[in-house]
C-alpha cells in the first residue's frame, strides 16, 4: 500500500494514523505526562498522538532504522500493530532476503571463478 496514492487516500490515511497514534498514546497513559502550557488542564488528542509518534520515532532512530526492532519494541510495549508498520516490516524483510540472496549468488560466483 502506497502512502501517497492520492489526495483522498492520503487524507484518510493521515486521519486513521492520527486516530491510531492518539489511541495508543492514551492507552499508555501519556496524556497526564505531557508538559502543557500554564492554564491547560488536559492534553489535546493531537498532543498525545505526537508524543506517541515521537516515542516510536526515537526507538526507530535508536535502532538504526531497523523496522524489525521497532516492531519488537511495539510488541513488548503491548501495543497493537499498525497497518503501515506491518507493510513496512514486510518490505524490510523482503529487502533483507534479497540482500542475502545476492550475497549467496556472489559467493557462489567467486567459488566457481576460483576453480
UniProtKB/TrEMBL annotation:
GO MF annotation, one: ribonuclease III activity
Organism: Lojkania enalia
GO biological process: RNA processing
Name the UniProt record assigns to this protein: RNase III domain-containing protein
Spans annotated as Disordered: 95-115
InterPro entries: RNase_III_dom, RNase_III_sf
SUPFAM superfamilies referenced in this protein's UniProt entry, alphabetically: RNase III domain-like (SSF69065)
Domain RNase III: 1-64
